[in-house]
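Researcher: Go.
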Amino acid sequence: MTDLVGVDELQKASVGAFFVADHAEVVGGKVYVNGGFWSRLQFPSYPAAVPPIAIVAALHVPARMYQAEHVFTVSLEDPDGHEVPGFKAEGRFRVGASPDMELGEPTTFPVVLPVVGLTIQRPGTYIFVLRLNKVELARLKIHAVQVAIVQQLGFMPLVSPPTEDDA
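Model: Structure:
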């Protein structure tokens, strides 16, 4: 029996997308995103409360993994590489092939994790880590930076003095 090129890759779960967004939701197997694909958080001081966000992933599940229960997790590492206490999201799912799929074709399983109440303790690079069945599939860097507070000055339009033509 001859091995086909790429067969091993078809048997592994993979990630089609892994990103953060201001808001996202899955409806009818599709992900709807507002304000997606950013990588910077800016705050004037720390610790800082992160406004509600969403973590989005599109998992490609190979046919050999159909009809089994799978567990995905997303954890967060701080700038020192330690897991942020109290932040860990987990979910379970089971997938199969839809009738219109070709034999052996992977299923794309969209995941949206709402994140509310996250506090970033200090500036630095934080990493969201996505695992499927305890196997790391993807890492996503988010840079938390400290920015100066800029006091807003009122805006006054420049007005030219009236001329004789205006009269």
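Model: The chain has one domain: 7-149.
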